[in-house]
Design a protein that fits this description.
The protein is mainly α and 203 residues long. The protein has six helices and no strands. It has helices at 15-36, 47-72, 78-101, 107-129, 138-157, 164-199. α4 (107-129) packs parallel to α6 (164-199).
């Protein structure tokens, strides 16, 4: 009888997780680049601000890439489930803080986003302790996508000179950001309602 081969523990360093780690590392790099380039002064196009916008778009698309790699290769890991939402939140919060610093975003937007993340993160810990699993909803996905589109819109606006087109685009981006804030609050309330049976359970 031949001796059994020792089992090999699968590595967490899958292609999907490597992409996710790269996303986390690239967020402060993106911020440093964004801080280095001024926005348009209203009279001419800012190529530096355009670069900031393009890099943010590329960073946002990697969110889809790591998810695709994990599913297509059947390599969904606990580490990936932990780090992927952190990468999303880091990308959104850092970008909103940058927009707030540049005067392109209201502090209320950042407040709603951060408050929602604190609420949901706390609820996740409570329901996990109760052995309850709450599946991610489409509201959360729509919230993230809409927020990233709005952020990208404001970053693109920062590159444009003043004019009628810029004003019209600003109105559109503002409406998208309002929709993102509404979805953020709605998804937080939805999660709270779903978690309430576990939260209100008596030990």
């Amino acid at each position: 009888m031949s001796p059994s081969k020792p089992s090999v523990r699968p590595s967490i360093m899958t292609p999907a997780n490597i992409v996710t780690i790269a996303r986390v590392v690239c967020v402060p790099i993106w911020l440093a680049i964004a801080e280095a380039f001024p926005a348009s002064d209203g009279t001419k196009f800012s190529w530096g601000a355009l670069l900031t916008f393009l890099l943010y778009v590329a960073l946002s698309f990697t969110d889809k890439l790591d998810g695709y790699l994990a599913r297509s290769r059947n390599e969904v890991t606990t580490f990936g489930k932990f780090l992927d939402p952190i990468a999303d939140k880091l990308e959104v919060v850092v970008a909103l803080a940058f927009l707030l610093e540049r005067g392109l975003c209201s502090s209320w937007v950042l407040l709603v986003v951060v408050a929602r993340e604190f609420l949901v993160s706390g609820l996740r810990m409570v329901v996990a302790a109760q052995g309850t699993v709450i599946a991610a909803s489409n509201l959360g996905k729509a919230k993230t996508a809409t927020t990233m589109v709005a952020i990208g819109g404001y970053l693109f606006l920062a590159a444009l000179p003043a004019g009628g087109f810029t004003n019209a685009l600003h109105t559109i981006v503002f409406i998208i950001m309002i929709a993102a804030v509404v979805l953020t609050a709605w998804s937080g309330i939805d999660y709270f309602v779903k978690a309430w049976p576990a939260v209100s359970r008596m030990d």
